[in-house]
């Protein structure tokens, strides 16, 4: 696998850091999860369990090793520093300043191992006026303006997102940064220190919605913008049986194909003028048309037209979807418990994830510091 021979020490909890190291573990890295005494990673206790671990913990920590260390104790701190001398990557998600107080900051690790790639993931980054504030995903989506665009009802009030985007994006940005640093290390022999801010990650994700703000200095109106409600062909419609279809392609070929099929090619110019209130007659027409047939009937019809669309699945439906199953995105461990596969597919050296999740402090013998 691509990352065989890479050792990762992961001191992070919850989602961003564990997602980063999970992806590396799925592709061959040895990931040693350093957990706090007592409860370990809080993810061990979040949500439902269908086996020895919660689904949350399993989804982010399979294939890793677990070692409990109390970094307030000299012996345990020394054990971590010994491990760091053998590691390629170090991931932590403390608030800024905590790692230094504990004696496990980049300077301390680099003194022992100049090749180490040190990745810090925090809410606001290592500097700035908010650096010491605590925050989870929802607060960061709010501060960056992303939440103001997530209007799900006619009252115009923001809705809580279904996915923790700041968590996911910062984990993926951290992964990209770590891999870039490892690649550069091949030429320089030197590691690096990476500062990933969840807030920065959300700001960077706004690129496709900032047109009104950058061009005119105003807040976008979600119900009039291209991908948040202002386009008839980027919208959700209810079907006769209570199902829902999402139209998701506004290119002219898709607009013309469906409107010709429905006998209203004259509506196409309204859609091709761009998003806005002028598309309401098309939205009303499509809403009525979709209510005349079932979801299944529409899916069959739209597939023949080569139109961008998706039936709105529940999560159980999504994990039974034939495309999801055909791509092998649902894996089963020895106990028959489901896992989400890695979405990264290589022709050569594909990932072969271990589906076993570690018990708390299962790999205590790693304190000796030698590679297995």
Automatic annotation (TrEMBL):
Q: Where is the composition biased (Basic and acidic residues)?
A: 359-372
Region feature (Disordered):
348-372
- SUPFAM superfamilies assigned to the protein according to its UniProt record, in alphabetical order: CoA-transferase family III (CaiB/BaiF)
Asked whether the UniProt record includes Membrane among its keywords, one would answer: no
Q: Which one of the record's GO molecular function terms can you name?
A: transferase activity
- Provide this UniProt record's keywords sorted from A to Z: Transferase
Task: Show the InterPro entries listed in the entry.
Answer: CoA-transferase_III, CoA-Trfase_fam_III, CoA-Trfase_III_dom3_sf, CoA-Trfase_III_dom_1_sf
Q: What is this protein called?
A: CoA transferase
Tell me the lineage of the source organism: Bacteria, Pseudomonadati, Pseudomonadota, Betaproteobacteria, Burkholderiales
